[in-house]
Amino acid sequence: MIWPAMAENVVIVESPTKARTIASYLGRGFLVLSSRGHVRDLPEDELGVDIKNGFAPKWVIRDRRVVAELREKTKSAKMIFLATDPDREGEAIAFDLMEILGNGHRFARILLHEITPQAVREALQNPGQIDLKKVEAQRARRILDRLVGYQVSPLLARVLAGRQFESLSAGRVQSVALRFICDRELEIQDFVPRPYWELSLRFPTDPPFLAKFPEKVEKPEELERIRKILEKAEAVVEKVEEEKVLRRPSPPLITSTLQQAAGTEFGFSPRRTMQIAQELYEGVPIEGKPVGLITYMRTDSVRVADSAIAQAREFIKKAFGKEFLSEKPWRFKNKTRAQDAHEAIRPTDVFRTPESVAPYLRPDQLKLYDLIWRRFLATQMAEGIWIRRKVTVRLGELRFQASTSWMEFPGIGKVLALEKLPDEGVPLPPLSPGQPLPRPEILLEEKKTEPPKRYTEAGLVKKLEQEGIGRPSTYAQIVSVIQERGYVRRENGSLRPTLLGFIVTDFLRRYFPETVQEDFTAQMEADLDRIQEGELSREAVLRSFYSWFSPKLQTVEELLSQRRKPFQVLTDVPCPKCGAPMEVRFWGGELYLACSRYPECKSTRDLPRDFSFRYREGRVELAEGLKRAEEVPERLCPTCKVPMEVRHGRYGRYLRCPKCGATAPIPTGVKCPACGVGELVERTGKNGIFYACSRYPECRFRLAGRPVGPCPNCEKGVLFEDPRRGLRCSNPDCPGP
Question: Could you tell me the CATH number of the domain that includes residue 39?
Answer without folding.
Answer: 3.40.50.140
